[in-house]
Amino acid sequence: MGDMDDDDDHDDEGGDGEALADQQMTTVSRHAFGDSERTAFSISIIENMKEDYGLFVWPCSIILAEYVWQQRLRFSGNRVVELGAGTCLPGLVAAKVGSFVTLTDDANRLEVLANMRRVCDLNNLNCEVLGLTWGVWDASIFSLHPQIILGADVLYDARAFDDLFAAVAFLLQSNPGSVFITTYHNRSGHHLIEFLMVKWGLKCVKLLDGFSLLPSNKAARLNGNIQLAEIVLNHERIEETFSSGAG
User: Fold this and answer.
1) CATH assignment at residue 73
2) What is the domain range of residue 155?
3) Could you give the CA distance from residue 173 to residue 175 in angstroms, rounded to a whole number?
4) Total domain count for the chain?
5) Burial letters 134-168, b for 16+ CB under 10 A, else e
């Protein structure tokens, strides 16, 4: 009996230790938006440094959020969906400037979705949080009809590119005139991206150096080669693409 009690105590300590480790890896970062003279508002983000959580504010997210702020008049009053949102900084900025925002991430990433809800509460923002897995065509995707789709660093795993572009094409098709705005590291894989954009009837209408969008104080803290792209339906190809099921 003594040995069993010792084992139980040891197991409890292990569980407590893991919980403490998770807590120690959790932090709250603050991200300010405004001009050189004043800060208009700041967003607080709950981050967790564990790799499997996907809860870290990456440079692509900071750049896309800054772009939303700079384009705030364009976003105000529009329906916005953020794909693969993670810590969801761009979507939260969109909500702050008056967008009606739906934050999405893989439906299987329950911890990420729960963190999104906590972050919305922390910032007093009323965003819908939705599990949306690229390539899974359930009821959730059919009711969105966004005018603007956001995606920060969603072009990192080539195995997911086809499902991502399929989802983007469907959402753009559901609301003519809508746009997908994404930031991504300029890595290899451009040929695959270009091929899939053609396959799904998409075209890039704007391509910017991500760091050119940042104020100097933010740019100094980041590194990488990041681009921002605006992608829309290629109306010359869209009817052919969807009628053939994109091959």
Assistant:
1) 3.40.50.150
2) 27-243
3) 5
4) 1
5) beeeeeebeebebbbbbbbbbbeeeebbbebbbbb
2 found inside a domain: no
For strand 148-152 and strand 128-131, is the pairing parallel, antiparallel, or unpaired?
unpaired
- pLDDT tens for each residue of 126-177: 999 999 999 999 898 999 999 999 999 999 889 999 999 999 999 999 999 9
Q: How far apart are CA 88 and CA 45, in angstroms?
A: 8
Reported as a pLDDT band with limits 50, 70 and 90, residue 237 is low
Please give the single-letter amino acid code of residue 111.
E
Strand, coil or helix: what is 105?
strand
Phi, psi of 227 (to 5 degrees): -115, 155
Q: Is residue 224 part of a domain?
A: yes
* Residue (of 152, 157, 31) closest to 80 by Cα position: 152
Q: Is residue 146 part of a domain?
A: yes
pLDDT at 135: 92
202-209 β-sheet, strand order: 128-131, 100-105, 79-82, 148-152, 179-185, 226-233, 202-209
pLDDT in tens, 14-27: 555 454 445 557 89
* Tokens 């099921």, residue located: 245
pLDDT per residue over 81-116, tens digit each? 999 999 999 999 999 999 999 999 999 999 999 999
What token pair was written down for 69? Answer: 């702020």
Domain membership of residue 173 (yes or no) is yes
3-state secondary structure 7-21: HHHHHHHHHHHHHHH
